[in-house]
Specification:
749 residues, mainly alpha, two-stranded antiparallel ribbon, 42 helices, flat, HEAT_type_2, Armadillo, repeat
Length: 749
């Protein structure tokens, strides 16, 4: 009766009867599958215009595909393609959707079939059905998507289809009617979150990865049951003049003892209170982590089991875990805090939830694993200035300095790196960082009514920074052991460590009392080690095309370290006692080698400045005849000016750069024109000649004319499109037309 030559009503009655019969179990399904071609006839009925026939056909295929033996047969009968076509119909009953999507759910169990489902047109339909009114349709769509995420190759397509926001909404909706929806949504998001980029997208939807540490770990939690309530960050709440209630309800229910008119809690503090209350309640009731069983974690190992929680609950739970006794749980919670601190909102939330005090206390934990995770968390949190001030208020500098002093003995390089970076973030967050003033250059807007307040605030910040630096230098933080440790870090082969140590020393040398100690600690050998970067030597003989991406990254890290060391050396040269001992010729040769190396252009600025200062102290002339100045001009100044002409969006910056470049070339420096050509300066000069101001056009013409004196540059000038631009200038009779004509005559046209 399923035959295509039979009456449509007979076919419909047959498929309905077979569907009902198949519900009897595997024996019934086996009896149906004895007849060859049955699946093909059932799939053909998916084209029927009758909803009843389509529902029965899809339902029968759902039952058949639940048996492993017949799953491939269903897929090979074009069921995926026909169901995709069926689901695209504008008017389709929820029952048909449910049965069709559930069939796909069964098929998606097979890894090789997931690729077919993802690459078909059904993926955007499944994402759309996550918002369907029928809860069973949403469950089925979520189930298919959850299975599809098990194949990592599908992740990119799924993310591009917009699956993360939809799944996040289902998980955050907290619909009690369907635990299935929450489970499949969580499983899918956990699989997607294994990729770092996708993890950030998940967190942007207000969900945070939280480690599952086991209910046993929470047994060490001890709530403060009989103390007056305080905010999670430790702020005490004032008691009102009213006495305590007869049965202590005023202490238990804070609202009974606080006048609402006098209490104004920020939203972040309110969320912290709500989150803490909910998580502590779950712990005390023994209900925490009940919903998140091992089956909801896919391929996560037992030591990496995680769940997803809305950010309010996640922040509170992570802070709660920090107060437990289990070392593994603490380390994992601190790591999750570091990963979740991706924006100002999350960093502030952790501060308000009281994470700072716990983390600072854990710096002295005996476990290296815990300390590393804690320092990493503080590192990420300290990106925010407000949070950084809260960290400093916990007197963190002493334990950080003590950790640094252990560098020679027991502390690992990775932990040292985090300590150094944290030290920089805390100590110099409102001072000079990487050679630029972060907060002291105040530009008052004419329309600002609070300009004086801004200036006063910045001056106070600067004075506070200077006072703090003097206090630290004069105290027991910066001593010979500490400085010797930083110098030893400079001698390591890790550019990131070298950069951070040099940045700390750069600020410390502003205090003259520390310079003598640095000289005694052999700061020169530390600086030499930075300037002798292994990656610089290995890259010297490579062409641009021979450099793998990883080695290019190493070169960039080396450039940052060299730049920081150059700033440090430049500041040390301000002191007479250092100038008397420094090996100027040695550092001149090292910096010259760095200057002509392949490090990024922006890192050569301080190298050039340091070279110029060394040459000045040596009594050499400051003109171009000085070989140091010549090298600086060829390898730093000219490339920097060309980069400004090429990439700046400001006509004023481009004009200033081309005028300076023209001045250098017009003074006849040897190899200056060759440097312009080799740095790719011809194309941007031609473009500026077409679109720049009159002064910029005139300077560009002068430079290009000097370049045209070398016939090797003719092909590049013509390829840059100079000929039509020059003809246009000549015909327009602009003030530069004579220069344009002269250049045009030198080119082979």
């Amino acid at each position: 009766m399923l035959g295509v030559d039979n009456d449509p009503q007979d076919r419909e009655q047959a498929v309905v009867a077979l569907w009902k019969y198949s519900l009897g179990g595997k024996n019934c399904i086996d009896n149906i599958m004895k007849y060859r071609g049955t699946v093909n006839l059932i799939v053909n009925l998916l084209k029927s215009e009758s909803d009843s026939a389509c529902e029965a056909a899809a339902g029968l295929l759902r039952v058949i595909s639940s048996i492993n033996l017949y799953r491939d047969l269903v897929a090979d009968s074009a069921a995926i393609e026909e169901m995709t076509s069926l689901l695209t119909r504008s008017s389709l009953s929820s029952d048909v959707k449910e049965q069709s999507i559930c069939t796909l759910w069964n098929l998606s169990v097979d890894e090789k079939l997931r690729v077919r489902i993802t690459s078909s047109d059904v993926l955007p339909l499944l994402v759309k059905f996550l918002e369907d009114e029928d809860i069973k349709v949403k469950e089925a769509a979520g189930g298919v998507l959850s299975n599809l995420t098990l194949s990592q190759s599908n992740h990119k397509l799924m993310v591009e289809a917009g699956v993360i926001p939809k799944l996040a909404n289902l998980l955050k909706a907290n619909e009690e009617d369907s635990k299935v929806i929450r489970k499949v949504a969580r499983n899918a998001l956990l699989e997607l979150a294994k990729d770092e980029y996708n993890r950030i997208l998940v967190m942007e939807e207000g969900l945070v990865l939280v480690p599952l540490v086991g209910a046993a770990a929470y047994k060490s939690f001890r709530p403060a049951l009989y103390s007056w309530p305080s905010l999670p960050d430790g702020t005490k709440i004032e008691q009102s003049s009213k006495g305590p209630s007869r049965y202590g309800a005023s202490e238990l229910l804070l609202g009974l003892n606080v006048d609402d008119k006098n209490v104004e809690l920020e939203e972040a503090k309110m969320n912290a209170v709500v989150g803490r209350t909910q998580q502590q309640f779950l712990v005390r009731m023994g209900s925490i982590e009940i919903e998140d069983d091992t089956k909801s974690n896919g391929e996560w190992s037992s030591s990496q089991r995680v769940t997803l929680l809305p950010w309010v609950d996640a922040v509170a739970r992570l802070v709660l875990i920090l107060g437990l006794e289990d070392e593994s749980a603490i380390a994992r919670a601190a790591g999750s805090i570091a990963d979740a601190s991706v924006n100002e909102h999350m960093r502030t939330s952790f501060k308000e939830a009281g994470a700072i005090k716990h983390l600072v206390q854990l710096i002295n934990h005996p476990s290296d694993t815990v300390r590393l995770a804690v320092i990493r968390a503080l590192d990420r949190l300290s990106i925010s200035n407000n949070v950084c001030r809260a960290i400093e208020a916990e007197n963190i500098l002493h334990p950080l300095t003590n950790l640094l002093k252990q560098f020679k003995s027991e502390i690992s390089h990775s932990l040292t790196a985090m300590v150094v970076f944290e030290y920089i973030s805390l100590e110099f967050y409102d001072g000079t960082v990487n050679g630029s003033n972060k907060g002291w250059d105040v530009v008052r807007h004419p329309a600002s009514a609070n300009g004086n307040d801004m200036v006063a605030s910045e001056l106070a910040s600067r004075n506070n920074y200077l006072d703090r630096r003097q206090t630290i230098a004069g105290g027991d933080l910066v001593d010979s052991t500490f400085l010797s440790c930083l110098v030893d870090i400079l001698k390591t082969s890790i550019p990131d460590l070298q950069r951070k140590a040099a940045s700390i020393l750069e600020s410390i040398v502003a205090i003259e009392a520390c310079v003598e100690q640095l000289i005694s600690a052999d700061i020169e050998s530390g600086l030499e080690a930075v300037f002798r970067q292994k990656s610089l030597i290995e890259m010297e003989y490579r062409t641009e095309g021979d450099k793998p991406d990883l080695q290019i990254l190493e070169l960039e890290e080396a450039g940052l370290a060299v730049s920081a060391a150059s700033r440090l050396l430049t500041k040390l040269l301000d002191y007479e006692q250092f100038r008397l001992t420094v090996k100027r010729d040695q550092f001149t040769r090292l910096l010259h080698a760095v200057l002509v190396s392949s490090i990024p252009l922006q890192n050569k600025e301080w190298v050039a400045a340091c070279l110029v200062k060394l040459s000045t102290l040596s009594g050499q002339n400051s003109d171009f005849e000085n070989p140091i100045n010549m090298e600086v001009t060829l390898y730093e100044t000219i490339p920097r000016l060309i980069e400004q002409i090429k990439s700046s969006f400001s006509p004023e910056v481009q004009e200033a750069a081309v005028l300076e470049l023209n001045r250098i070339i017009s003074e006849g420096m040897i190899d200056s024109t060759r440097a312009v050509a080799s740095e790719g300066g011809i194309f941007p000069l031609v473009k500026l000649m077409e679109n720049g101001s009159d002064r910029a056009v005139e300077a560009s013409l002068a430079i290009l004319y000097n370049l045209s004196m070398d016939s090797e540059n003719h092909a590049a000038i013509i390829a840059a499109g100079a000929i039509p631009v020059l003809r246009k200038l000549v015909l327009s009779q602009r003030s530069q037309w004579m220069r344009a004509l002269r250049l045009l005559r030198t080119l082979p046209t």
